[in-house]
Design a protein that fits this description.
Elements lengths: L1 H4 L2 H20 L1 E7 L10 E4 L4 E3 L5 E4 L5 E6 L2 E7 L6 E4 L21 H13 L22 H23 L4
Parallel strand pairs: 1-7
Antiparallel strand pairs: 1-4, 2-3, 2-5, 5-6
């Protein structure tokens, strides 16, 4: 009975599944790609196999290579390229960050007056186009908070400006705009 239940086609299919499923399991390689310095998983690492396949790690650094390969090149823009063999792709792979290092830097200093020539031109143009305050009186609010004491002349000027501002406020209150 047992032999009659399985036909030849079913036996062949069953043999195929039994023999090739371990090979498929061996062909699938899984690992997590991690930054060597910080230990943080790295996303979007591309694995280029020697067979021409390309696989990309997910947001958790998980990389699954679903094909048979001998070597794979792991590439990411911020890390050094690493070439691994199929036996290495088991658990965790570490990538070293690229370091751009300068051997020696020499700074030659001069007076700052010529450092930004365009800035002095822009400041001169802004000063030329600035409109004077209405009534010819200017008032610097933060001048009141300077640490050094004001001269008598500066205190009188501040009092005069405050009085003029109070007059303007009273006039605006008396004649509101429609």
């Amino acid at each position: 009975m047992y032999c009659h239940y399985f036909s030849n086609a079913r036996k062949a299919f069953l043999c195929f599944v039994v023999w090739y499923s371990p090979l498929y399991m061996l062909a699938q390689a899984r690992c997590v790609i991690v930054d060597k310095e910080t230990g943080v998983p790295v996303r979007n690492v591309k694995a280029y196999t020697d067979k021409g396949d390309v696989f990309i790690s997910d947001y958790q650094g998980n990389l699954v290579i679903d094909s048979m390969f001998h070597t794979a090149a792991l590439r990411h823009g911020s890390y050094l390229e690493r070439i691994v063999e199929s036996q290495e792709v088991k658990d965790t792979l570490w990538l070293l960050p690229q370091a751009i290092k300068l051997e020696e830097v020499v700074v030659w200093g001069e007076a700052r007056k010529g450092v930004f020539p365009w800035m002095s031109i822009a400041m001169a143009q802004a000063a030329a186009t600035a409109t004077p305050p209405p009534g010819g009186v200017s008032f610097d609010f933060f001048e009141m908070f300077r640490k050094k004491p004001l001269s008598r002349k500066a205190r009188k000027k501040n009092q005069q400006v405050l009085r003029e501002l109070e007059k303007q406020a009273e006039e605006e209150a008396a004649h509101p705009l429609p």
